[in-house]
Amino acid sequence: MESKSDSGPASLTSEELAAIEDEGVLNKMLDNATDFEERRMLRAALRDLLKKKRDKREQERGSRQQDLKQQGLSKGGTTGGAVSIGRASMNQQPPTNKPPGKSSPSAGSQASPTVSSALKCPPAAAPNAKNVKQMLLDWCRAKTEPYEGVNIQNFSSSWKDGIAFCALVHRFFPDAFEYSILNPNKPRENFQLAFSTAERLAGCPPLLDADDLVRMKEPDWKCVYTYIQEFYRSLVEKGLVKTKKRT
């Protein structure tokens, strides 16, 4: 059984790749692939799988909302209607209650005391910091390339809705959560999901705080860069990323 996965997608057609419905399998094959055409086929298969899952979720959500609406009409439209609206708003509407200035800490935000210090991001001191920064940015871009809604161009605005963080974490832990149901209009939830999953599964310290990031127009690139460095380091320690020595 392992010999087929070791041989990679060279022996697989696009149709056979499309039949694979396990993101983890495709991700592993993508990590092992070296040929450009193989990687192109695998990225396309992974993109199609994520889109298929998202479409299925939206279809199921629409069916549930329709059922709830029908139940509300049959009961006079009070209780059922309220449930339907609540479910729809949870999945579709952007957050409206943004506290001005200082905000009271949210219920699950225990990281706030550590964040104030974490957000005071020190400037990179290494002489080759620019090369390292570009290499890390290229790595993030390559790992999230199959994910719809992610277009990493920098360490600031590209991360402001939390989707890029989620995609990067999901790339290494595809069973941790369902990427296809994430909502870019809910950045706080996306940040919390990505950071908590990275801490739980990769051992990455929660250097960033969702509430602080939401208050910013754009995340501070030094803070995001520092966090991604920590995440990368955690993956290396877990053996999920192999560093290569350049000659």
UniProtKB/TrEMBL annotation:
Keywords, in A-Z order: Coiled coil, Phosphoprotein
Protein name: Smoothelin a
Alphabetical list of SUPFAM superfamilies matching this protein: Calponin-homology domain, CH-domain
Feature: compositional bias, Basic and acidic residues: 56-67
Comp. bias (Polar residues): 1-14
Family the UniProt entry places it in: Belongs to the smoothelin family.
Lineage: Eukaryota, Metazoa, Chordata, Craniata, Vertebrata
InterPro entries assigned to the protein according to its UniProt record, in alphabetical order: CH_dom, CH_dom_sf, F-actin_Monoox_Mical, SMTN
Boundaries of every Calponin-homology (CH) domain copy: 130-236
Gene source species: Dicentrarchus labrax
